Every structure is written in structure tokens, then in C-alpha cells.
């Protein structure tokens, strides 16, 4: 068994790490990220991107992201987006073309605890919670600080809109 992390490639202000079953992107996405080139890294007609550590995407990065989605659709590639960070969820909500035909398996969402004031970005499993998410009903989350139930800290009809067709 090895505990060493796989090496990360640097592309502008973004890094790419090959996790084996997914490519993990981290940092900021801009025109130097060359996202569309990731299409060539798909395995068995499938490209899985882990997006937990993406903190920012600028307008040129969004343009490149849309190119990547279009190229994936053209070559019938299944794209899975996993652990999508909040900044990318906002893009998926604002610009429909950024969704392409990608399947979002999980994503981060803002929660707040009324009891202790803690605010946290928590991971939502979009498959397990599919039925309530399409009804714009945020899954309940427990505060890691005090154990109280946390409240969803955005407008569900806005934050979950990327999940509707
Ligand atoms: Zn709390």
C-alpha cells in the first residue's frame, strides 16, 4: 500500500491530479487551464471530474468549460461531475451551457447553524437525495460543531436549479 499522493500537473492557476477513477481539478480555472484537452484523458468513454477544490472560474475559464462540454457531447462521452464546489454550482445555475450533458453526482451547498452560528459548505449526494432535491427540499444536515440541525443557507429554487432539465 502506498500513501503517496499522485503528482499534480500545473495548468495556469489550476492543477490536475489523476486519481485513477477521476481527474481532480484544484485552484482557479482561466484560459490557461485548457480544460477541453481533458477530453483526451477519458477512460472507457467516461470522464469523471472531482471539483471539490476549485475555488474560482473566470469568464474565459467558463468559455473553455463550455467547449469541453460541447466536445464531450460531440464524442458521446459521459461526463460525471463529482463534489462540485459552490463557485461552480453558481456557474451551472447562471449559464445553462456549462451543464452540457454532464451528470452531477454530488455537490457542495451552504448550510448555517442557528444554534451556534457555524456556517459550512457541506457535501450533498445528488443521487441519494435526488427525490427531495427535485422538490427543492434541502436534505437535513447536522452541525459538526454542536449537533443541532443546520438550515440551508441559500434559496433552494436558485441553488438547485442546475439539477432540473
Ligand atoms: Zn451548531
Structural account:
The protein has 4 helices and 10 strands; from the N terminus they run ββββαβαβββαββα. The protein has 165 residues and is an alpha/beta fold. It has 2 domains: 1-104, Transcription Regulator spoIIAA, CATH 3.30.750.24; 111-165, no CATH class. It has helices at 59-74, 86-94, 130-134, 156-159; strands spanning 8-11, 14-18, 23-29, 46-57, 78-82, 103-104, 106-112, 119-125, 141-142, 149-152. The model has no long low-confidence stretch (mean pLDDT 94). The longest helix is centred in the middle third of the chain and has 16 residues, at 59-74. Zinc ion is lined by residues 113, 115-116, 118, 143, 145-146, 148.
Q: Kindly state the mean pLDDT as a whole number?
A: 94
Strand order of the largest sheet: 1-2-3-4-5-6
**Helix/strand/pairing class, anyone?**
alpha/beta
How many structural domains are formed by the residues?
2
What kind of sheet is the major sheet?
Answer: 6 strands, mixed
Cα separation of the termini: 42 Å
Give the name of the CATH architecture of the largest domain: 2-Layer Sandwich
Which spans of ≥5 residues are poorly predicted at pLDDT below 50?
none
What binds here, in terms of ligands, is:
zinc ion
* The CATH superfamily title of the largest domain: STAS domain
Q: What is the 3D shape?
A: globular
Quaternary organization = single chain
CATH topology of the largest domain: Transcription Regulator spoIIAA
CATH class of the largest domain: Alpha Beta
| Helix-strand string | EEEEHEHEEEHEEH
Helical percentage: 10-25%
Alpha-carbon Rg, integer: 17 Å
Strand content: 25-35%
Counting DSSP H or I runs of 4 or more residues, the number of helices is 4
Number of strands: 10
